[in-house]
Design brief:
Largest sheet of chain A: 6 strands, antiparallel
Largest interface: A-B, 18 and 18 residues
Shape of chain A: globular
Oligomer: homodimer
CATH superfamily of the largest domain in chain A: Ferrous iron transport protein A (FeoA)
CATH class of the largest domain in chain A: Mainly Beta
CATH architecture of the largest domain in chain A: Roll
Number of strands of chain A: 8
Number of helices of chain A: 8
Radius of gyration of chain A: 19 Å
Chain lengths: ~220, ~220
DNA sequence: ATAAAAATTTAGGCAAAACTAAAAATATAT
DNA sequence: ATATATTTTTAGTTTTGCCTAAATTTTTAT
């Protein structure tokens, strides 16, 4: 599989997690930063290789083969991210672009040895699950902080948006994976939240709360 | 720089280490496994970018800029090889192809952090020197075992050929980097050597001896 | 010195992956 | 329901890196 084919597969995979029907040409184009016409070309190629099912104008869906291939790319991406953060001391907002390249290195032996070296992690530095060598994913109970009720407490376990600017905002506010967060109040006008983190109160917008995953603890 | 451009640069670099004049089109074609006409095309592109100096029919030479770029690729290749062997437990005959891919990952930060993680190694698993971040290479005193005199003793410090088959032969004979080797006799008919390694005597052909680097110790 | 051999370059093409512009299909809105 | 808007596909190009075949230059051998 080429570098480009892998990127398309990955894009289709990520999009299909939220769209239960076929993934649209335009959505893919947005994700891989190309034009719809280029996507149509590539989709045909992927369909020939039986990685996706494609019907003109109806969007695409991954086949079992395509799904597994996509998961293996995601596995590589996330394992490399763990390596960069845990072993090379990268910050969590710096790893995405490098992992984007590393994920295309073709060696099963490499990735399985890396997995072992890292101690078979199940989540990447942003709290996203790492598929195992068979494509199995451990689902963790979690919900968006914006869905918490006032009075509830959670442990931050992931981010929905892993853009550098969002992650740096969290660093600045000293919110990290593992932080205990209590919902003190919710403003009904804009859905902003007053939360308590490390004994300090702060206000976060609904947009922030909608991009933070937490696990309820009480 | 593209993947392909990097491979050509690296090939020219390796060839220019043994050829003090311009590197020939055919030699490059052999190294990158392409045809002479393809090499001519690529050379023109590299010349436009001022990475090589090129005169029709006269071969190519690296410019300072090209030399530094080539050394950085070699640096990456060899650091990744160290990583694979030291950290991921690959055998020294398994690392080349994977490193061949890893060397193209574009991130200075990555490679410098990897360098630090590995403890700033100066040699790769085959005894080849690793250029530092400025392109400086530590030269180690060494010579081919085939050039040793009878009675001399050396420590094996590198291999000239790092093909899997040669490395596996050495493994089988229990010759590794660091092995102490004494020349017991040299057969004048075929230049084969009787050597002593770890108290055991064995005979190695001239071809083997011509691909093993050692440092004289007495 | 010159003919033959080898190496190199040029010319013309191909495949992958992208693009623009135009055509076709589908979705939306009044 | 039908006109309009949006989405998707098709058709035709471009660029990169490779190829083959032919032409040219350099090297080698007599």
């Amino acid at each position: 599989m080429t570098y480009s084919e892998e990127n398309y597969l990955k894009a289709i995979y990520h999009l299909s997690l939220t769209q239960k029907q076929g993934v649209s040409t335009n959505a893919i184009a947005g994700m891989v930063e190309s034009k719809a016409s280029s996507v149509t070309d590539m989709i045909k190629k992927l369909a020939e290789k039986e990685l996706v099912i494609y019907q003109k104008y109806q969007g695409v869906m991954l086949t079992d083969k395509g799904l597994l291939a996509a998961k293996m790319i995601v596995r590589k991406h996330r394992l490399w991210e763990v390596f960069l953060v845990e072993k090379l001391d990268f910050a969590w907002d710096e790893v995405h672009d490098v992992a984007e390249e590393l994920e295309h290195i073709k060696s099963e032996k490499l990735i399985n040895k890396l997995d072992a070296f890292l101690g078979f992690p199940t989540e990447d530095p942003h709290g996203d699950p790492i598929p195992d060598r068979n494509g199995n994913i451990v689902k963790v109970e979690k919900q968006l902080l914006s869905e918490f009720e006032v009075g509830q407490t959670g442990i931050c376990v992931g981010v929905k948006d892993s853009s550098s600017s969002f992650l740096q905002y969290l660093d600045k506010q000293q919110i990290a994976l593992g932080s205990k967060i209590k919902i003190i109040a919710k403003e009904s006008f804009d859905m902003s939240l007053t939360i308590e983190v490390e004994k300090k109160h702060m206000i976060i917008s609904n947009k922030i709360a909608s991009n933070l995953f937490a696990k309820i603890v009480s």
